[in-house]
């Protein structure tokens, strides 16, 4: 049976929680008092995070999650609700980017990336939003990317997926207005994470060269995942009556020498 929810108890789900922004967000929310449910395919990484959170006095559980698999999403939603009670906060963060020129990438690969970055978020919405509607309370936060407004070349389907994700989120904001559910977007600029670390050096160099060519890498500074985790925690912790619907976070440029 689901645990009864205290008015101040807000169980939170974080997907893509095995590394980077997701892992840091899980740690940050747990430190702020949220019971957190971690989901990702790399369960061994999640187990380490759960142990760290518990050692620091927080409450956390972890279950395997593949957002491209409906059965996995359904099983995850049931498991975390059984563990923590009704889910109050959903941070949809799972995503992946691979380098590639659009006309050279196979349609099958393009579709699989859209499935992960866009349809996966929709599967999570289907799993958790109906319960939030019944309770007239909830936060759904999508981790997007600045490619949604400033497309970057040589990243295959990533820009298309994030444009679609933000379109879905903005439509949901309108559809759910007055329901007690806040739909929000946090849009990171360039950020250090594991994303891109599996690319070949030549492919990574081509991507960065393209960014510079089109003015999309104005300086060398990148964000650390903590900056995004702090933004996410700030958005979902706002009291009722306040809706931070879109927050874009970018690295500050280095100081120019006088």
TrEMBL record:
Pfam families: adh_short. GO terms for cellular component: membrane. Keywords: Oxidoreductase. It comes from the Bacteria. GO terms for molecular function: oxidoreductase activity. PROSITE patterns: ADH_SHORT. Belongs to the short-chain dehydrogenases/reductases (SDR) family. This is SDR family oxidoreductase. It comes from Nocardioides marmorisolisilvae.
